[in-house]
Each structure stands twice: as structure tokens, then as C-alpha cells.
Design goal:
Blueprint: E1 4-8, H1 14-28, H2 35-44, H3 49-54, E2 57-62, E3 65-73, E4 99-106, H4 115-129, E5 134-139, H5 144-149, E6 153-160, E7 167-175
């Protein structure tokens, strides 16, 4: 196993992040979604530059290559990229609201090598340090096994049709107290 390193993403990382996001959406969902659903999922998934600006988005590198990315948010939007409809930048209250795990993507070359688990650990530590007691995320079918392994429980199954095809997702949560 090669060593993974992590760092906060910067705006200069956006071109490489977009490559990782595109590859993850295209390749890692093939066993779970139809081609039409993968295309539709691009409407509700993607990079959220607000996370980079907020300093809550991580990059994981492996042997000098970007292996994955993901972050957490103190804002109300639960999922979606910059272009996704229905975004809400309102700040959450750590005493009553769960922090959001957001925009997690692993390049297919590095799948199942600890990238996602490392990002989740970094997010949990950072959110707890800001006083959050719970985490929530919207899991894709391909991401759900990782989230369950890391202690997230299914809270609600939804189908997002904003992209023109039904994309199954699961809202999941975890206590971090």
C-alpha cells in the first residue's frame, strides 16, 4: 500500500479536481446506474467551489497523483455542485445542525485503497473541532458501502430527478460525540 498524503484544496487545484470528479462519476457508478442515470447525476453532483473557499475541502494525493477529494461544510446545502439547483449557503448551527460531508470523489485508479476513509476521518476531526456533534451526507449507490463501514446510518432514501432521469440517493447520518 502506497502512502496517502492529504492537504486542503486550493483554487489552483480546480482543473485536476474536475478530472477526478468526472472520472469518479463516470466510472464508479457503472455497476449501479444506467448510462442515462449517470448523465443525469451530473446535474446533482460535482465540485462545489464554496468548500474550497471555506477551507473545508481536502485533496488526497498518492505518489504525486491526485487520488481523491472531498470535504465537509458548515453550510445548509447537503449535496450538489456549483451548478446544481436548490443550493443554500446559510450557515449551520453546530449545537443543533449536523455538518455536511460533501463532494466526495475518488479517482477510479485509487478506489478501495483508503482514500475515502481518510477524507471522512479528516472531515470528522475538523467538524468536531468546530463544535458539530453530528454529520450528514447524501450517499450515492457506489459510495454507500464506504459510508456504512465508517459508521453512517441510512436516514432516508430519495430519488433525485432534476437531471431528467431518476438517480437513487440515500441521506445518511452519524454522531461524532
Amino acid at each position: 500500500m502506497t502512502d496517502l498524503t492529504s492537504r486542503l484544496a486550493g483554487l489552483q487545484d480546480i482543473p485536476a479536481l474536475e478530472v477526478v470528479v468526472d472520472a469518479a462519476i463516470t466510472e464508479l457508478q457503472r455497476s449501479f446506474l444506467t448510462t442515462a442515470q449517470i448523465t443525469a447525476s451530473r446535474t446533482v453532483m460535482g465540485l462545489d467551489r464554496q468548500l474550497i473557499t471555506d477551507g473545508t475541502y481536502f485533496v488526497v494525493d498518492c505518489d504525486g497523483q491526485m487520488a481523491g477529494c472531498g470535504g465537509w461544510s458548515r453550510r445548509a446545502t447537503l449535496y450538489g455542485g456549483d451548478h446544481s439547483p436548490g443550493r443554500d449557503a446559510a450557515l449551520l448551527n453546530p449545537a443543533t445542525d449536523p455538518a455536511r460531508i460533501r463532494a466526495m470523489y475518488t479517482h477510479p485508479t485509487f478506489a478501495r485503497r483508503g482514500v475515502g476513509r481518510l477524507i471522512l476521518q479528516l472531515c470528522e476531526i475538523a467538524a468536531r473541532a468546530e463544535g458539530f456533534k453530528r454529520l450528514e451526507l447524501m450517499g450515492t449507490m457506489s459510495g454507500r458501502p464506504l459510508y456504512e463501514t465508517c459508521g453512517f446510518m441510512a436516514l432516508e432514501a430519495i430519488v433525485d430527478e432534476r437531471g431528467g432521469e431518476p438517480v437513487p440517493l440515500t441521506r445518511m447520518g452519524k454522531s461524532i460525540v
